[in-house]
Amino acid sequence: MANPRAHCLCGRVQLEPTQPPLRAGHCHCANCRRAQGAGSWTWVTFSGEAVRIAAGADELRHYRSDTDATRGFCGHCGTTITYESPRWPGHLDISAACFDQPPTLPDRHLYADRAPAWAPILDTLPQFGGASGSEPLSA
């Protein structure tokens, strides 16, 4: 079976993980919500060296946020594709929505205490929050 590819809306930028994912989840922080234009961002984490740019390296652009995180996006269609943070060196998050079928399902919510009222969390996955976004929240 071929490795799953992630691609932007126009298909010019394509990423191919060469190893299984490490984890997946939903992030509800304001930066992820704004970058995605949605109530949360669903990501799949890979080891950074386990992802190759299969197409569109010349279209891939980067934006560094106030948290020193770097988001990769297609310079043609604007799709946010990747996220890297100095908090998790060596890891690369890929937007789950960029896969036709994500290679794993989310198993957690980060910054769950920041989820907006208009986009409530309705599942039973573990929720984390606090200053780091990854502190267990009591039920």
Structure description:
With 139 residues, the protein is mainly beta. The protein is built from one helix and twelve strands. The strands form three sheets. The chain has a seven-stranded mixed β-sheet. The longest helix is centred in the N-terminal third of the chain and has 7 residues, at 30-36. The mean pLDDT is 95.
Overview in brief:
With 139 residues, the chain is mainly beta. It has one helix at residues 30-36, and strands spanning 6-7, 14-17, 23-27, 41-47, 51-55, 60-64, 70-74, 80-84, 91-95, 109-110, 128-129, 135-136.
List keywords for this structure.
5% helix; 3-stranded antiparallel sheet; 7-stranded mixed sheet; mainly beta; 139 residues; 1 helix
Query: Average pLDDT, to the nearest integer?
Result: 95
- What is the H/E order? EEEHEEEEEEEEE
> Largest sheet at a glance?
7 strands, mixed
Global geometry: globular
The helix tally amounts to: 1
How big is the Rg? 15 Å
Please identify the structural class as seen in this structure.
mainly beta
Percent helix range: under 10%
How many beta-strand segments? 12
Strand order of the largest sheet: 6-7-8-9-4-3-10
Per DSSP, what share of the residues sits in E-state strands of 2 or more residues? 35-45%
User: Low-confidence parts lasting 5 or more residues at pLDDT below 50?
Assistant: none
CA-to-CA gap between the ends?
40 Å
